[in-house]
C-alpha cells in the first residue's frame, strides 16, 4: 500500500493477522530497504505473536535518495505514516522500530505517537570514530516506551549503555549489518512482544 505524506509517498509492505494483538511498524536504515534479514526476523517473530506488521519504505527512499535529509521532515512524515496505519488498526498497542537510522526515527517519535515499545536494530550511537557526537539523547527520549536494542559487538557506530534501554543485546563479532545471529534477534524480541500485546 502507499501512504501520502508531507515529504512524498511512502510504500508499505503490510502483513495482517486474523486475531490482532498489536501493531508493529518497522523501517529501514539510511540507504537500505525493508527486506534486510534482521527486519524480516523481527517481522516473523511479531506475526507469530499476533501482530499486524507494516514495513515502511520512507518517502526519501521511494524518491530514490539514499540519505534521509532533514530529521524534522523525516520525523513528521513518519508520524503521518504511523497515524494512518493506526487508523487502520484502532485500539491496539503500537510498537515501532527500525534498523540504524530507522531506529533513531522510532525513538525520536515514540512519545508523540504513544508507542509502547521500540525495537532498535543497530542503533547508531555515534558516527564511526566520533564517540563525542553521541545520539544517546534520542535513545532516552522515548518517555514511557520500552526500548529493546540489538547491536553487533563490532559495530563501528558504537553500542548503547545497558542503562539507557529496557534491554541491550549485543551479538558478538557482528558489524553494523548483521551477518549472523538472527536466532538471537528472534529470541530477544519474542518475550517483549508477549508483554506489549
UniProtKB/TrEMBL annotation:
Every KANL3/Tex30 alpha/beta hydrolase-like domain range: 23-163
Alphabetical keyword list: Hydrolase
Matches recorded under InterPro entries: AB_hydrolase_fold (IPR029058), KANL3/Tex30_Abhydrolase (IPR046879), NSL3/Tex30 (IPR026555)
Pfam families tied to this protein: Abhydrolase_11
Alphabetized SUPFAM superfamilies for the sequence: alpha/beta-Hydrolases
Entry GO MF terms: hydrolase activity
Gene3D superfamilies: alpha/beta hydrolase
Keyword Hydrolase: yes
Identification of the protein by name: Alpha/beta hydrolase
Organism: Nocardia coubleae
Amino acid at each position: 500500500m502507499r501512504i501520502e505524506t508531507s515529504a512524498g509517498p511512502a510504500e508499505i509492505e503490510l502483513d495482517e493477522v486474523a486475531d490482532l494483538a498489536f501493531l508493529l511498524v518497522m523501517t529501514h536504515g539510511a540507504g537500505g530497504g525493508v527486506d534486510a534479514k534482521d527486519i524480516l526476523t523481527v517481522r516473523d517473530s511479531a506475526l507469530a505473536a499476533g501482530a499486524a506488521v507494516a514495513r515502511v519504505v520512507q518517502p526519501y527512499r521511494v524518491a530514490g535518495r539514499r540519505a534521509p535529509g532533514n530529521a524534522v521532515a523525516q520525523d513528521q512524515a513518519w508520524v503521518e505514516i504511523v497515524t494512518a496505519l493506526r487508523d487502520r488498526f484502532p485500539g491496539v498497542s503500537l510498537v515501532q522500530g527500525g534498523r540504524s537510522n530507522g531506529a533513531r526515527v522510532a525513538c525520536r517519535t515514540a512519545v508523540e505517537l504513544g508507542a509502547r515499545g521500540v525495537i532498535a536494530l543497530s542503533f547508531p550511537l555515534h558516527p564511526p570514530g566520533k564517540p563525542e557526537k553521541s545520539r544517546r539523547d534520542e535513545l532516552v527520549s522515548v518517555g514511557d516506551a520500552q526500548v529493546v536494542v540489538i547491536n553487533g559487538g563490532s559495530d563501528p557506530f558504537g553500542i548503547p549503555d545497558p542503562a539507557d534501554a529496557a534491554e541491550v543485546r549485543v551479538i558478538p563479532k557482528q558489524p553494523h549489518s548483521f551477518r549472523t545471529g538472527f536466532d538471537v534477534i528472534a529470541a530477544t524480541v519474542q518475550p517483549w512482544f508477549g508483554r506489549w500485546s
